[in-house]
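User: Can you model how fe (ii) ion sits in this protein?
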Amino acid sequence: MVGLRRFLMRILNPYRAPRHPWLYRVWQVAMVLGHRPSAEDLAQVRAFLPPSLWPLFEKMPPAEQGHGIRVWRGLLERGVTDPDLLIAALLHDVGKARARLRLWERIWAVVAHALCPWLVERGCRGPAQGWRRALVVARHHAEWSARILEAHGASPRIVALVRHHHDRPERVADRALYESLILLQEVDQRR
Ligand SMILES: [Fe+2]
Ligand SMILES: [Fe+2]
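Assistant: Here's the modeled complex, given as C-alpha cells:
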C-alpha cells in the first residue's frame, strides 16, 4: 500500500485536479488512496486555525485533511482573504470523521456519485449500514460538521457556511452567504 501511495503521488499532482470529468474521478480516488498532508502542510494549518478549532482538524483522517487543505489552498489561490470562508474550507467535512469510513466505503462513495446518482438517492435514505453507510454520511455530514463546529465555538457564519456547503446557494435563506457558498462549492468540487 505504501508503494502504491508513493507511485500515485509521483505521477499525480495532489494540488492540480485534471479538468476531464472522468480523469477527475480517477484523481479523486487516487487522492483518497494516496495523499497525506506533509508536516509542513499541517504546521501551516495549525498556524492559521484558531487554537480551539485545531484539535478538530488534527483528528480528521489524513485523506480528509488533504482534501481540506486542497480546498483552503484553492481559495487562497483565488485571492480569498475572508477568514470565515478559509476556516470553513479546512473544516467543512469534519463531520465525516464521526463515521470513520473504511477505505472501500470512501472509494465507493466517489464511484457511486459519479456513476449512479439514482442509487445514491435511494441508498442515503436507508439505515446507515453496509453499502449505504458511505452514502448516508455523504448526505448528512454537512449538518454533522456544522454542529461539531458550533459546539467548538466557531462563529455563526462559519457554522452556516459549513451547514450549507452542499445546498444550492440560491435556496439558502441567508442571502449574505451566497457569494461565499458559490466560491466554496466551486473549489470543493474540484479538489
Ligand atoms: Fe462535504
Ligand atoms: Fe469537501
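A couple of observations from the model: Residues 133-151 form the longest helix (19 residues). The chain has one domain: 2-188.
User: Helpful, thanks.
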